[in-house]
Specification:
147 residues, alpha+beta, Nucleoside Triphosphate Pyrophosphohydrolase, 7-stranded mixed β-sheet
Length: 147
């Protein structure tokens, strides 16, 4: 079976405007129609680097603009679709929200079906995927260095 390499970038965007730190997450429907809560992410376009792609994708999928505070690491996983295997690597970053309004209306691919602010201490419990829960835990651990 042929293998395709895919790269995405996204991350944890934190609203630090008050004492209750919140993170914007999105919901998508999986191939089986089940709702899955995840971190916003997507593929770099044109000559974008991973940081630029993360900023753009998060803004498109959540409506929230931000700037990068730190890299959080990468995760990779495999899945099969349409007769080929996909090896996907996702580069995650910690971002501070700088503006915008929470919405899925700006998502050009309409992948996100819902978006929500979640308290940072509840983030890992809300995410559907274990590898993203590990990224969320890391973000929570390093965030005090940037406040």
């Amino acid at each position: 079976m042929p293998t395709v390499e895919e790269i995405s970038a996204g991350g944890v965007i934190v609203d630090t405007s008050d004492d209750e730190l919140r993170v914007a997450i999105i919901a998508r429907l999986n191939r089986g129609g089940r709702l899955e809560w995840c971190l916003p992410k997507g593929h770099p376009e044109g000559n974008e680097n991973n940081q630029e792609a993360a900023i753009r994708e998060i803004a498109e999928e959540t409506g929230i603009d931000g700037h990068i505070l730190a890299p959080l690491g990468s995760i990779d996983y495999w899945f099969t679709v349409s007769g080929h295997r996909v090896h996907k690597t996702v580069h995650h970053f910690l971002l501070r929200a700088t503006g915008g309004e929470l919405t899925i209306e700006n998502d050009p691919d309409a992948e996100a079906v819902d978006v929500a602010w979640v308290k940072i201490e509840d983030l890992a419990k809300r995410l559907s995927f274990p590898n993203e829960r590990r990224i969320a835990d890391l973000a929570r651990d390093v965030l005090p260095d940037y406040l």
